[in-house]
Amino acid sequence: MTETPAHTALWPAPHASGAVTATVHVPGSKSVTNRALVLASLAAEPGWLRRPLRSRDTLLMAGALRAMGVGIEETVSSSSSVAGGPDATGEAWRVIPSGLRGPATVDVGNAGTVMRFLPPVAALADGPIHFDGDPRSYERPLTGVIDALRVLGARIDDTSLGSPGALPLTVHGAGALDGGPVEIDASSSSQFVSALLLSGPRFNQGVEVRHVGGPLPSMPHIRMTVDMLRSAGAQVDTPEAGGEPNVWRVTPGALLGRDLTIEPDLSNAQPFLAAALVTGGTVTIPDWPAYTTQPGDALRQIFTEMGGSCELTEQGLVFTGSGSIHGLDVDLSEVGELTPGIAAVAALADSPSTLRGVAHLRLHETDRLAALTKEINELGGDVTETADGLHIRPRPLHGGVFHTYDDHRMATAGAIIGLAVAGVQIENVATTAKTLPDFPELWTGMLGN
Ligand SMILES: O=C(O)C1=C[C@@H](OP(=O)(O)O)[C@@H](O)[C@H](O)C1
Ligand SMILES: C=C(OP(=O)(O)O)C(=O)O
User: Where, if anywhere, are coiled coils annotated (predicted)?
Assistant: First the structure.
């Protein structure tokens, strides 16, 4: 018997028979884990990552850093016997920095964090580092990072294998990089700015990044970069701290090895919170941080506006749906990665929604604006694309196949709709492995199946 390939397999999305009541332990943040891996690899001493996310994107990051010579040891411990102190329970990664070296090959998969954060690291390596990835990775914007690295002193070959400014490419690391001031247009991805800042302390002159161009998306992710750099001992000047608008400066200096516990991924908490909203139930997410730079924290406000209510308690974030779901008019430019889940809930609401400020989602894992429009409309919905977002007019939906285009957030968006609409089948739910490999189990577990 031949097996159905994962990308065509259909997963019957569970339909909720009533209000969902559950506590869901959401695995670690992709964005925090991959920043922590980069910073720990560039540090002057070993460090620990506790409760890291183990998913395709983070394993690709770890694999790439290992290929450049970094030691990353995975440990699982149930007691405090592991070196590192009394909190050393559960999964932890010990990161042992070393002289970065090539030749090495990096598979970026379709991970924006890997394809953007690692070319600056590769410029510090001794030897050539070749980057390749999924076909979609060739289409995702990278030119801001490549052009900036050239200005800062790196040698990059992006023409012999692919199109200029895109993958595949080779960074010819020279063991060090001059660094200094550079202008970039990061309107297509905040990750360009984060990438240059993360390695900045290791450039000879540090780095001064000046964004020129249209509005910069995903500002919380840049704040996350700055916060994590500062926690690792770096000196960073930012626009927020009274500096020039759109200019970030990182001073050269050694980075500390940290002992960092990774927060749960609040963007991956989204489908579970949505389940409470859609079914009029209650979902608790333990370990929701009181302070965080994660964009998913904005769900407390957005999903409250859509009809729920929430409270941060000792048990975690307790989110309760009222039984009604309201549409909203919202600028999602700061929290673009939440768009698919918000669109799914909006399609089930009692009034229309307008989601704005997310034109750059056309160059995410897939063209998310086109994909959401097509898939919701195939189920009977009424969604139209605008120049920078979506108009969603709720209509009664029916079952059918929800295609995911190798996009983890399309799969979880389809699952949200499936709670309220019988007969929804998610094509390639396995694509959630990009950031949440246990999604199907967590989802059915939440529903008590
Ligand atoms: O830096 C990060 O960890 C991320 C930044 C954002 O990228 P864009 O600014 O390209 O949207 C976000 O959408 C992505 O999921 C993760
Ligand atoms: C846009 C996303 O990922 P990436 O890090 O690949 O850009 C996402 O996770 O929604």
Answer: none
Measured from the Cβ of residue 18, the count of other Cβ atoms closer than 10 Å reads 9
Against a cut of 0.90, is the pTM above it? Answer: yes
Q: Ligand 2 mean position to 111 CA, how many Å?
A: 6
Atom of ligand 1 nearest to the CA of 221: 1
Domain boundaries, the chain: 10-27+264-446, 30-261
Residues having CB closer than 6 A to ligand 2 are 111-113, 337, 364-365, 409, 435
- Residue 99 Ramachandran class (φ > 0 left, ψ -120 to 50 alpha, else beta): beta
Q: Is the pLDDT of residue 83 over 90?
A: no
In CATH, what number does 10-27+264-446 get? 3.65.10.10
pLDDT at 245: 92
For strand 90-96 and strand 71-77, is the pairing parallel, antiparallel, or unpaired?
antiparallel
* 144 ligand 1 Cβ < 6 A: no
Among 376, 298, 365, 382, CA closest to 338: 298
* Residue type for position 448: G
Q: Does the interface ipTM go beyond 0.95?
A: yes
Instruction: Say if residue 409 carries a ligand binding annotation.
Output: yes
**Residue of the CA atom closest to atom 7 of ligand 2:** 112
Separation between Cα atoms, residue 84 and residue 259, nearest integer Å: 8
41 lines ligand 1 (CB under 6 A): no
Same-fold call for 10-27+264-446 versus 30-261: yes
Residue of 199, 218, 333 to mutate, ligand 1, most atoms within 8 A of C-beta:
218
Name the token pair of 27. Answer: 């695995």
Cα–Cα–Cα angle for 426, 364, 114, nearest 5°?
Answer: 105
The answer to the question of whether 30 is labelled as a binding residue is yes
Please give the DSSP secondary-structure letter assigned to residue 441. Answer: H
- Tell which residue, 170, 173, 157, has the closest CA to residue 125: 173
30-261, CATH topology level: UDP-n-acetylglucosamine1-carboxyvinyl-transferase; Chain (3.65.10)
Which is the closest atom of ligand 1 to the Cα of 30? 3
Ligand 1 atom at shortest distance from the alpha carbon of 225: 1
Mean pLDDT value across the chain: 95
Residue 1 reports pLDDT greater than 90: no
Is the C-beta atom of 221 inside 6 A of ligand 1? yes
Q: What is the mean pLDDT of residues 292-313?
A: 98
